[in-house]
Amino acid sequence: PDDMARRAEAAAGSFRRLKLKLGGQDGLDVERLRAVRGVTDLPLQVDVNEAWSLEEALEALPQLDELGVAYCEQPLPARDEGGPALRDRSPVPIFVDEDCHTLADVARCAQVAHGINIKLAKSGGIREAIRMVHAARALRLAVMLGCMLESGLGIAAACCVAPLCDHVDLDGNLLLREDPWPGIELVDGIQVPSLAPGLGVTSRA
Known about the structure:
Elements lengths: L1 H10 L6 E4 L7 H9 L6 E4 L6 H13 L2 E5 L9 H7 L4 E3 L6 H7 L5 E5 H4 L2 H13 L3 E5 L5 H8 L7 E2 L16 E3 L2 E3 L13
Parallel strand pairs: 1-2, 2-3, 3-4, 4-5, 5-6, 6-7
Antiparallel strand pairs: 8-9
Helix pairs in contact: 1-2
């Protein structure tokens, strides 16, 4: 918990909200979140990466709600039979990631979540992602736009879909030592796309 709190405190100076990766096998997820909340008032989201059982999720989510968590991403394994029950009982909005890849998955996700996480690397591209957004809206699902570990090229493409989404989590290029497709600039905690023609990024090659 102390290590995550130190990292969160350091990151809080550069970003406007924090997304925390939970799902440790030591049972200290809530304690980690409490430690983070003790050092920052920034909005918090969590991603559990399929690590909780239904019982663990039902125990943890009310505590996450008390700590002001905006949403919880993929608390259960994909296609877990407990999904509908958790959706109905969770005080925190549930978003699914590993459950949702393409348009064909969206209708089923409405039964287990309050929102979906769309990633261009999963969906296949901008057009499929936009189709997924429209399907989600028809089903009253919230939409988050995420990414994998990607260069600025992937992030720039995702920016084309970002205005249609409720939450945008495009930070994959920030994890690269050297981005092979620079052009996206981090300004005051926000990823700002280039105004150059096309996707606005240029290969270093």
